[in-house]
Each structure stands twice: as structure tokens, then as C-alpha cells.
Amino acid sequence: MEAYKQEFIEFMVESDVLKFGDFTLKSGRKSPFFMNAGAYVTGEQLHRLGLYYARAIHDSFGLDFDVVFGPAYKGIPLSVVTVMGLAELYGKQARYCSNRKEEKDHGDAGILLGSALADGDRVVMVEDVTTSGKSIDETHPVLMAQAQVEVVGLMVSLNRLEVGKGGQKCALDEVGERYGFPTASIVDMAEVTEHLHGRPCQGRVVIDDATKAALDAYYAQYGAR
User: How do beta strands 95-104 and 110-114 pair?
Assistant: First the structure.
């Protein structure tokens, strides 16, 4: 595993973004872990987050694109910090774009925030995590209705590696197949478990043997095949 991925895993724990315990997800599933990208709140955290996204996008999709698109609401700051990270690491001048939940009819009117989209634009989408693919199902038609753009790929910070709607593949893979573009994550839960099991982080072991057993049981039931 690359060093920056190991750093990112510990960064999620340090930032209180990735937690282990007993959680009930929106889907109703009982999960031994929970990820909340809304916990990145400081300037330093957001700066680092943008650099991690930029590195992962570079490694997975290259730099031949024009726009970073983040679905509202959590994708809005993600798209902003990612274009900043791309500029800092690679001198890449990408534009940021996000959608509004409700179209604005005055002033800066329209459904988009940030850059307008033009025919021929190549777009990378960014999200925090894809559990069911619902947010992409909602925003992909909005994105494609603005111009004849090409989606180069979707980057999420964490792939939960859980089955999607089809009950076999993980939701992230399902999204890629449904819309015909590649998908990737900075890290996935298999990498998280491998790196953190039995290893101190922030002065404590966050995945001890009991937590590892709970994760194994969860993925025996909900893991993608």
C-alpha cells in the first residue's frame, strides 16, 4: 500500500471522520464503523484532504480533464479543495463545479455553482463515500443536462466494499457499470482494516481483535463478492 494511503487512513481517524463502534446506517444496517466527511472542519484538515484527493485522481485517472464536479452538498467543499490540491501538487488548473439542490432564478441564476460547463469538457466527479449510489443517480442527469461533457471518472475517499442494489457487486462498481465511467477510491475498507488492525493510532488501537471480528462478521453478511 502506498505511503499516502496509509497516511490518509490515519488522517481519517485523527480527524474523527472514521469511527468504530455500533452504528445504524441510513439503510438500516447495523455497522461496526461509520465515516462522516463532514467532520473535516479546520483549514489544515481541508487542505490535506484536497491533496489526498488530488494525488488519488492523478494516480487513477491522470490529469487530462477540465472540471472537478462535486454533488451537493458534501461534494461542494470536496470539489473546491480538490482543485486547490491539483494546483498545488501538479500545477493543474482545473475548474470546480457543483450543483444546487434547488435552481436559483435570480442573480447568479441556474442549477450550478462555480464554473459553467461547456460541450467537450472532461469532468472528474468527487464524493465522500458511495453506499448506494443514490446521490450519483440524482446528480448525473443534472450534470449531463448542462452540456455534452465526458465523465472521466468518479473518485470517493472511502470504498465501503458493501453490496449495492444488485446484491453482488459493491455500490461503487455498480455506479461505474451503470454510467460507463471508471470509479476509484483513495482507500477501501480492506486497506483500512489491514493497516489499522492491532496498530496504535492516536495512542490507541482502533481495530483490536474484537473490532476485527465485528468487521469480519459484517462483511460476511454485506460484503461485495
Answer: antiparallel
Q: Each residue of 80-92: pLDDT tens digit? A: 999 999 999 999 9
| Residue 165 falls in the annotated catalytic set | no
Question: Three cell numbers at 23?
Answer: 452504528
Helix axes 3-14, 189-196, angle to 10 degrees: 80
- How far CA 168 is from CA of 137, 161, 174, in Å, comes to 19, 11, 9
Catalytic residue among 30, 101, 104, 165: 104
pLDDT in tens, 173-199: 999 999 999 999 999 999 999 999 999
Give which of 53, 39, 83 is closest to 157, Cα–Cα. Answer: 53
**197 has catalytic annotation:** no
pTM of the predicted model, to two decimals?
0.93
Task: Identify the active-site residue in 19, 26, 74, 106.
Answer: 106
